[in-house]
Batch of 3 targets.
Target 1
Amino acid sequence: MSVEDNVRLARRWFQEVWNEGRMQTVYELFAENGIATGQSEQGEMLRGPKEFAIFVERIRGAFPDIKVMVDDAFGADDRVALRWSATMTHKGDQLGMAATNREVKISGITITRIRNGQIVEGWDNWDRLGLMRQIGPAESSQAA
C-alpha cells in the first residue's frame, strides 16, 4: 500500500470505529497479532481485534455520542501519525464513575504502523487528566 492509502485507512479507522461504532471494522483493519499501547485508562497493551473491540465498546458505552475529528494526518513508509480532537458526553458508568452527563473535549496523537492493509501496531497519547477533570466532581471535597 502507498503512504496515501495508509493515511486513508487510518482516517477510515477513526470514522468507522470511533464515530460510527462499527465493530466489524475493528476485525477487518486490526491485525490478528496487532498490538495497541496507550489507549486504555490503565495503560495495558491491547492484543488483537477482540481485545481492541472490547475496549472500544467500553469507551463508547461511557461516551455513546463520541465524535473524533482528525485534525491532521500524515504518513511515512508504513507509519501514519494523526492529531485528533474529540467531543463526547459522559453518559455511562463504564469507567468506574457514575455518569455525569457532562460534555467533554479531549485531544490526542495516534501513530499506527500498517502492513498489508491492516494496523499491526498503534501508539496513543491522549489527555487523560483533562478528561478526568471534566467529568470529575463539580465541587471540591476538601475541607476549608
Note: The helical segments are 3-19, 23-29, 48-62, 128-135.
Target 2
Amino acid sequence: MKTLTDARVAIVGLGLMGGSLAAALRGECRSVVGVARRRETVAVALERSLIDQGETDLETGVRDADIVVLATPVRTILHLLDVLGPWLPHDCLVMDLGSTKARITARMEALPEHVQPLGAHPMCGREVSGIEAADPTLYRGRTFVLTPLPRTSPRALALGRALAEAVGARPLTLGPERHDRLAAMISHLPYLLACALVGTAEATAETDPVVWEVATSGFRDTSRLSASDVTMMLDILLTNQDAVLEAVQACEDQLHTLTELIEAGDEDMLRTILTARRNRRSSLFT
C-alpha cells in the first residue's frame, strides 16, 4: 500500500464534499482524479484546478487508483459499492464520505478481498451544494470520523488518518453504530428542527403573512439547515431511521420539560436550565 504522497486518489462525486476534498488534496498526493456523471461538473473542476484529471466513466476513473473516495449521497454510495469491485486495483483503499455509516460499512464487507475498505465521515458541511461551492478549507480543524471494518488493516487505517490530516482535519475512530447514534443527535436532528421551525412559521403565515417581515437574524440562523440539499438529507434520514427517531424522542422530552415549566411559571427552574444550556453552548463554540 502506497503512502499518501505517492498515491493516485480518485474522488467519485464532485459536489461540495468531493470537490472540497479534491481541492484540499492537490499537492498532498501524486494526483487527484475527479469522477462525475455530468461533463459540465468535470469541466468546472478542471477549470478551477480542483483536480488533475476528470472522468465521467466510473471504471476509467477508478481502475488505476490507489485510493478511491466515494463522495456521493448515501444511497448512491451503497449502489457504487455493489458495482465497483471488479474495477478496483489490488491493495486499493476504498473510503466514503457518507453521513451514515452502519449500512455503508456492512455493504463494504462484500468488496473483493484484494481491496481495503474504510468508512469515513468528515463532520463538516454547509447548506450549499455543488462543485461551485467547493472550498479547500472546508475540512480544516474539523473532526474526520473513521469507521474501520474488522478486515481493515492497520496500514489502511493509517493511510485514512494521513488523508484526514492532510486536509487539516482531526481523525477520530468510532464504530459505525456509535457514529450513527451520535450523528443523529448533533447533525440529523438539527436539520429536522430547522425544517420544523420553517413549517411552523409557514403555518402562521397562512393567517398572518407579516411573520415573514419580522423574521430576521434569529430565524435565519436557526432555520439555516433547512436549506440543505434534500436528496442528501433524505438518504441520511432513511438510512439511519432508528437513531434519528431516538434523537427526535429525546428532543421532544426536552421540549416537554420546558413546556411544563413555562406552564407552571417556574422561573427559578427555567433560569437554571436555560443558563446551563447557554453555558454549555458557549463552552463548545467560543
Note: The CA atoms of residues 261 and 270 lie 6 Å apart.
Target 3
Amino acid sequence: MNQAFLPLAGVRVLDFSHVIAGPLATFYLAQMGADVVKIEKPAGGDVLRRSERGPSAFLSLNGGKRCVALDFRTEEGRAEVLAMAREADVFVDNFRPGSLERHGLGYEAIREVNPRIVYCSISGFGRTGPWADRPAYDHVVQAMTGMAMMGGVEGDDPIKTGFPVVDAATGMLGALAIVSALHQRNRDGRSILLDVSMAAASMQLMYSYAVEALTKGVSPRRVGNQGYSGSPAADFFQARDGWIALGANTPAQFSRLLEVLDLGELATDPALFDGAAEPGEQVSFLRAKDPMLLKSRLRERIAGWDAARLEQRLAQAGVPASKVRSVAEFAADAVASGALEPVVIKDGEDSAVVPGLGFRAWA
C-alpha cells in the first residue's frame, strides 16, 4: 500500500471500546492515519492484555493507538473525558447501551461539549428495543441470528464458525459507519449518533439468506461444503494427499474441469444429463439429473490426484479451485506471492504482524 494513504490524518478518536469488535473498528481508523486515544480502566486495562495468546492479541487490535488509564466513573475522570471529547472528532464505545449514560458520558452529554462529534455506539443488539440490554459475545450472536444453523448438513448439531466472524464484521461496519459519518459531518457540521450492532452485522454477512428470510420467511437448507451455486461440481473433494475445493459452477467451467480430469464422457452420460453439458453461454449454474452420482464419479478421479498439482492444472484451465490450506499455510503462500502485504505493529519489545486494511491504494 502507498504509505501516503492516510486519509484520516488529523482526525482524533476517543476509543472506549474493548475486546474485539470496537477495537478492530478503531484499529482500522488508526491504520488510515487517525490519532486514536484508547481509554482503559486503571486496574488491568483491556482484558485482551491478559490473553493466553500473548501480547500479540492486544497489539494486533490496538497497535498505533495511544493508551490512557482513566477511571471515568469518578468525577475527576469524567471531567477529564469531557475535556478530551471537546477536542475529538469521534467517540467510540462498545459498552451495553445506557452504561456510559449512567456516568454522564452518553451521546447527549458528549454532544453538549462538542456539537460536531461522531458518536459510535457498538453493542450486541442495538440501542433500542427489548434486546438492547442483553450482553453478547460472537458465538451467542451466531446462535441467535441463525448463523450456527447454516454450517453442516441437515440433522447436524449447531456449528459455530471457527473464528469470531461477527466481531470482525462488526468492526468493519463500525469503521465504515464512522468514515461515512465524518464525511456527512464535514458537510453539514452536525453531530451524528451511530448505532452499530453485532446482530445487524451477522445479517449483513448472511445477506442473500437474510433477504430470503425477510422476504419469504424461509431458512436456507444446510448443504455442508457445497458451493452457493448448488452446482454438484462446486464442493470439497478428497485428493490423494489432502482436500481440494472446486468451483465449477457453470457448464463452461464444468467442461474445462472434465478436460483436466480426462472425464469428457460424463458430459454426454444420459444418467447425468438430458443433453450434453455444453460450454455455451453462461446462462445458468450447472445442474445434473443425479447430482450424487456425478459427485461420486468426480470423487473417484480426484482421489488419484495430488491436491496442489490439481489446483495448478485447474488454475491454468480457468476453473476456480484451491487446495484446502491451514491459515498458516495460506499466510506464508500469500506473502510469498505478493497477494498479501502484511504490516508489522511494534510496541517496545512486543510485535504483531497483521494483514493490513484488506485493500491496497495507490496515489
Note: The two ends are 9 Å apart (CA to CA).
